Amino acid sequence: MALPAEDLVGRADELGSLERLLGELDRGHPGAIELAGEPGIGKTRLLREVAARAEARGHIVLSGGASELEHDLPFSVFVDALEEYVAGLEPNRLAVLDDQVQAELAQVFPSLSALAGGGEVALQHERHRSHRAVRELLERLAAPTPLVLVLDDVHWADSASVELLGALLRRPPAAAVLIALAVRPRQTPERLSAPLERAHREGVLIRIELGALSPAEARAFLGEALDPAEAAALYEESRGNPFYLQQLARALDLTVGAASAAAELSSAIEVPSAVAAALTEDRVELVLARAGALAATGHFAESHEALLEAMAILPEQSIALRTTLTTACARVEHRLGQSSRSRSAPHSRRRAPGWSTASGNTSRPTRVS
Ligand SMILES: Nc1ncnc2c1ncn2[C@@H]1O[C@H](COP(=O)(O)OP(=O)(O)OP(=O)(O)O)[C@@H](O)[C@H]1O
Ligand SMILES: [Mg+2]
293 is in which domain, residue-wise? Predict the structure, then answer.
């Protein structure tokens, strides 16, 4: 089976909106766009497309993002996007900014610490001065050439970055600056969703909610060489989520009779290879591949649900595998417990019918949405 293509698939409407915004930028108008969607739906991929199209138009593109582990560094999303670029600027590009603005920027960007000199620095409660300084910096950078600021995974942003983003949405730079950001709505804290919602209501922020690929798009994504029945099964399992499509296709690509597939699957969810290799039920295999892919990427709640689903569709006589899956599920539950203690997002921990005993009944659970 061919592995999924790198080319962007579908998203025609979304690209239309993005092109319009880039066109506005060429006319000197600022803008902001939010790509919202579940993990793996294609936010980062579409941001990459925005960046490529903006670069093709000759815009400056500066990209950064938040990370799950580093949300304590103030302004980290903006530092990530801008730091390297501002560090390489000719000193006179910033010399025109007034002393106080330079001093504020020195506080935000480590590479500009030399600018700290003259001006007074804002206290914590005077963050608006840092906001104003960054707005002025963006205006300056975009003065000769439109600027696209790409901010990924903003749901993990530190609070200083969130406040700065809110300030830039409340009062956008008076220059050709486009802010393109991506968020997972279910992991977006209130302190971020409130300013995004407000900007959206006021028409300052365009929101694109990325949905599943259509069956035809999934087909194009997987490659036309794939057997239609197999493509349909993958589509059903993945529910049109490109990341899961990709992972399932990869797992199955290795599966065609190969032991390595079982090894990959088992290392992902820690099911012993011998047991995984003995799987003959296609559907169980697909669900397990999904569980493995989810666990491997830290989506423990969803992995847990997929394991429950696999349990429920196992043939009754598969006592050994049932027992093994019980152990795998307990491991994932353990990881789930660990990760839910370190995250704020609620996890559902549904149990499938017949789950509680290793030899329980096998009635099928309803699909978790
Ligand atoms: N429309 C698409 N065309 C082609 N490939 C895509 C498309 N959408 C997503 N992909 C691919 O699917 C995978 C997952 O997409 P991506 O990383 O963009 O998801 P995401 O929404 O950013 O997820 P997360 O919230 O976990 O960051 C990537 O390998 C990406 O290249
Ligand atoms: Mg992403």
Answer: 215-367
